[in-house]
Specification:
It is a single chain. The protein has a five-stranded mixed β-sheet. It starts with a helix and ends with a strand. It is α/β, with parallel strands linked by helices.
C-alpha cells in the first residue's frame, strides 16, 4: 500500500504522516473524513468493477493534500533566514506537480486518447441545436458516446459499465434491440416504437459496432444531417 500511494501521489504521500502530526485541530477535523473514506475504499469492494473504489480515494486525496499544503507552508516559514529557502521550496513544488503535468501533457499530444473527433463534436452541436430536448437517439453503446456526453439527449442503450456493474439484468436485451434496429430497420418498427426512437445516428463507431443497413434506414427515416462520416436520420 505504501509504495502504491508513493507512486500515485508522489511527494505528498511522503509528507502526509508528518503533516498529520504537525497541523491544527481544525485541519484534523477536516481531514477526519479522509480516514473514513480510505478505510471503506481499502476494505470493501463497492461493486464488481473494483477500480470504481477510486471514486472514494480521489476526494480523500484532495482533502489530504490540503493538510499537506498547510504543513509545507509551516515548514517554509520555519526555514526563514536559511539561505536557498526559495530554491528548496521551488524544487519541492516541482516534485509535487511534475508527474501530473507530464501525464496531462502526454494525454494532450496522444491521438489515441481523443474522446470525440471534430466531426462528432460538430454533429453533437447540431443535435443540441436542432432536436427536441427529450428526443431519443439510436446510437452506439460506448461509454464515451458523443450524444450522451455532449448533448444530454437520451439514447436507447448506454455503456455496459453503467448497467452490468450495478446488476441491472436487461442490458443484453437492449444491446440486441439496438443491433436489430441497425441491421434490419424495415422489420424493427415495433422496436423503434418500444424505445420511442426519434433519430438514428450513424458514424464510424456505429459502423464498427453493428452491421448498419443504411439502405434500409433510408426507407424508414429522412436524412437530416450529413457531414464528413456522420449521418443523422429522423424517423417519421
Amino acid at each position: 500500500y505504501f509504495w502504491f500511494y508513493v507512486k500515485n501521489m508522489g511527494v505528498p504521500a511522503l509528507l502526509l504522516i508528518p503533516a498529520l502530526f504537525n497541523t491544527t485541530k481544525r485541519n484534523l477535523a477536516v481531514v477526519g473524513p479522509v480516514a473514513a473514506l480510505m478505510l471503506v475504499a481499502e476494505t470493501f469492494s463497492l461493486q464488481p468493477n473494483v477500480y470504481a473504489n477510486n471514486k472514494l480515494i480521489y476526494p480523500a486525496s484532495i482533502l489530504a493534500i490540503g493538510v499537506i499544503a498547510h504543513y509545507m507552508v509551516t515548514v517554509y516559514e520555519k526555514l526563514k533566514g536559511i539561505k536557498g529557502r526559495q530554491i528548496l521550496a521551488a524544487g519541492v513544488i516541482v516534485a509535487c506537480v511534475l508527474s501530473g503535468a507530464l501525464s496531462m501533457g502526454r494525454e494532450y499530444v496522444a491521438d489515441e486518447y481523443e474522446m470525440f473527433s471534430s466531426s462528432q463534436i460538430q454533429a453533437a452541436q447540431w443535435v443540441d441545436e436542432n432536436t427536441e430536448k427529450d428526443a431519443v437517439i439510436l446510437t452506439n453503446d460506448r461509454y464515451n458516446n458523443a450524444i450522451t456526453g455532449l448533448t444530454g439527449r437520451s439514447v436507447v442503450c448506454g455503456g455496459g459499465w453503467f448497467f452490468s456493474t450495478h446488476g441491472l439484468p436487461d442490458y443484453d436485451l437492449l444491446q440486441q434491440d439496438v443491433k436489430k434496429m441497425y441491421s434490419d430497420p424495415e422489420n424493427s418498427s415495433a422496436l423503434f416504437k418500444k424505445h420511442s426512437v426519434d433519430y438514428i445516428f450513424i458514424g464510424s463507431d456505429e459502423r464498427n459496432s453493428y452491421e448498419v443497413n443504411e439502405i434500409g434506414i433510408k426507407k424508414i427515416a429522412s436524412l437530416v444531417y450529413d457531414k464528413d462520416e456522420i449521418q443523422i436520420y429522423k424517423i417519421g
